[in-house]
Amino acid sequence: MSTPATASVLVVDDEPDLRTLYELTLLREGHQVVSAQDLAQAREWLTQRRFDVLITDMRLPDGLGLELLRELSTSQRTEKCIVITAYGSAENAVEALKTGAFDYLTKPVDLKQLRAAVSAAQQSQRHVPEALQPGSAADGPRPTITPTAEPRSAPPPPAGVRALACIVGDAPSIAQIKGRIEKVATSMAPVLILGESGTGKELVARAVHECSHRAAGPLVAVNCGAIPESLIEAEFFGVRKGAYTGATQDREGYFQAAKGGTLFLDEIGDLPLAMQAKLLRVIQERRVRPLGGVQDEAVDVRLVSATHRDLAALVKTGEFRQDLFYRLNVIELRTPALRDRREDLPELTHALLQRICDETGQPVPRLSAAALQWLQSRELPGNVRELENLLQRALALSSGHTIGPDDFGDTELDTIPASIESPSQVDPCVAPTQPSPGIPTDLQTYLDQQERLVLLQALKETDYNRTAAAARLGLNLRQMRYRIQRLGIAMPSDDNDAG
């Protein structure tokens, strides 16, 4: 629906000076504003009319502002709620978001952030509410908030529809996650996406962004495991000229680049502990200080994180901060493994073939029933990423208009002897017990083949995570990339540096 020029706002605060300050600030923006000093007065207003935005202090003389949020949710009201919490009260902020608040502000409230929060809440309204019937105030000190009719959700914007369509499948787990994406997209609450490598966590993050009121802003994706620790603060928060040798000009960081949009922190579990503390401060204060800067800068981003690691287990071992996990895990989305939705394999295979062929400009071949059966028999521990890798190889080897089982080539990954699963298991001082295959006629080709087998095995066992595979083989990431390119090893199209 089209966004109205002004919003109808109810401000609930027991401090007259602050209440007046919020009113005047929003009135200057052209909004219609009324105020209440406690829960009872707020309920009176809510029985009489509908508002676009509700702003409430957490602590009021006759209760908590969260009570209003719960009552509005129970009554199926569509007001977007912004909660004001005490400075540093992380628990209250997280509780407010989990209760259904659109956003939260900390005291002392930055008026610029207040105006931005109201504007964002107004833009996020994607419901078509029915008119409210005036309620009665004669039911005692706690009148019932009049419910609307069942809200009819408008569809996501076109970009959101396209992003959801990229999450292919009709399995119940996929339908559930798509429904949750649409629901959580209209909030500012942080989202944590969990799931195995190759299950499409970045697709989910993009759908959250594209379905939200921030879709017109940028989506900045950051691979936390691929940034050298010495550069990570500068990359996240930006640099001021002269901060260090080589800093010849100001440069914005990821938070500044994502202004007005969404910052996607992929593989958040790989973030160093020192950086975790700095990230927690930014989430709490919504301000960053560039490296070499002397002043903090306000940031306006929606935070979405993802990892294939077990963050709860990392918290127990001290590798991940519990307070940061608490702040990131306000809304949890879990991407299902491919083995848990085998019924989607035919549709997934067709969609992946279509995309690969569109990128390469070749006609889309038909997948034979035998080839599909072959894929169904595979374990596919690398999930959709591994499926895409297999299809890319089949396309490269196929010579006709139909892909059969033979086009997937020899499954080299399954024929590697257990004795060479990793170089550390090979003792060069022990003679092999198996007969020698004979002296190769082309030593370099033979060595390349053996190296390729070892690299493929390491990649398979790390879910095609190049960083992890390189570490297992005693290589650095640059050496790993060079060998993959030199030996022509097909990798999925997306970034695999951190799984």
UniProtKB/TrEMBL annotation:
Residues carrying 4-aspartylphosphate: D57
CDD domains: AAA (cd00009)
Gene Ontology BP, a term: phosphorelay signal transduction system
Protein name listed in UniProt: Fis family two component sigma-54-specific transcriptional regulator
Species name: Hydrogenophaga taeniospiralis CCUG 15921
Coiled coil among keywords: no
Gene3D superfamilies the UniProt entry points to: 1.10.8.60, 3.40.50.2300, Homeodomain-like, P-loop containing nucleotide triphosphate hydrolases
Keywords attached to this entry: ATP-binding, Nucleotide-binding, Phosphoprotein, Transcription, Transcription regulation
Claim: DNA-binding is one of the keywords in the record: no
